[in-house]
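Many introductory courses stop at the sequence. We go one step further.
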Amino acid sequence: MASETSPVLFQVRSPEGGLSALPGGDVRETWPLVHALAATLNDPNPLPTLAEVLGTHLGVGACLLLCHYPSSNHLIYTCWHRDEEPTSQYLGPAEAGSATDWQRRVVLGLIQQTIEQTMTGVRPRWQKGLAALLRDEDGPPAWLRTVTACTAIAVDGSGLQGAILLLGSGATAVDPGVQANLASLGAIAFHQHYLQGQAVRQTEQLRYLNYLKEDFLSTLNHELRTPLTSMMLAIRMLRRPDLTPERAAMYLDILEQQCSREINLVNDLLMLQTLESKAASTHRQPTDLGQLLIDLAEQVRENLQQAQLTLDVQRPSSPVVLSTDLQQLTKVLRELLDNACKYSAPATTVTLSLAASPAPGRGIVLQVTNWGMAIEAADLPHVFDKFRRGHSATREGIAGTGTGLALVRGLVEQLGGTITVSSQPSDASQLWQTCFTLEFKPHGEVTPGE
């Protein structure tokens, strides 16, 4: 970091137009300034260093660096003022009306005003904006009340727009040549900061992908070996000469069950790959969703009973018809019901519901709800990620490969619908309610190939 006693590196012009030395009496050339500021770009995080060097050597009370990256719609602002370390803050896309959204609007407004000042000479209205941007629970910082003047320098680089704001108790007009150099160095620093951020994000993503790969290979190894081991043992037992017909039938059932398990796993992996390659096709036909739910209930009722679960099917009295691919939608609902069976607490109810909104264009809603362990907040955004399994599933040793819900999302999107998930605690017990919600357009609005 720069020191308060650092030598003066450049000159500025007073408002009257004469050369004015910075505190200490030195008057230096512009190029030493450029080299000194360029040296800050060697810092892994150049923006705080750049802000402090600018503020310290220009003798201003505070320095703000503001930047907008349109490609990612991210904003960053760095603030330095005397006697405190500089700080930087990212402002990503935010919900309308939120505090972050308001800060984003302020930063964008200040950048736009600075650019317009460069083009038209109109002074930016910075006081109100800075008070809103820098305020905390106690209001705007106390030092901001001593600021009476702002020198704004526009930064326009490839793929970004920004501003350098020099704040003080008196006007400080920087020489136009120095301003141009500062704007160029600012653009380089902002671009370097963006590239460094990208490198960090890519490194984190690579680390995450490696984790997923190792976790998937470990899970797949278990899911493949367990059925194969059972089949091998069953084959060995079938070779015994003293085997009774009853036990032979039992081992044949084991072989069939485990073979079906392997086939289903391979089919899911192949279907997931087909969906990702956009090669999957749909065969839509008018489908009575109420009847589909009844048929599904009969198919899965025995499995749920074995897990000590009750299935509750809720559907309207009148038919609800959707133009869809019956086989793919059945696969989706079966996967969701199997998932509910895995994660439900014993002696609870799994609900399969259907509703058609009377409002025009609101569509058809299918929900699968169960009561059991929570989906942890860190896992919730990644529920539908391929090969991603929740920490609770791994901790509890629940079987699975992390392909089921990824396949569900792919199939739902293929059918022109959307799927969301929520996990909320119960007021009456320690169980959590997990609800998967599927929404489809009304009959007649979904067309083949959508």
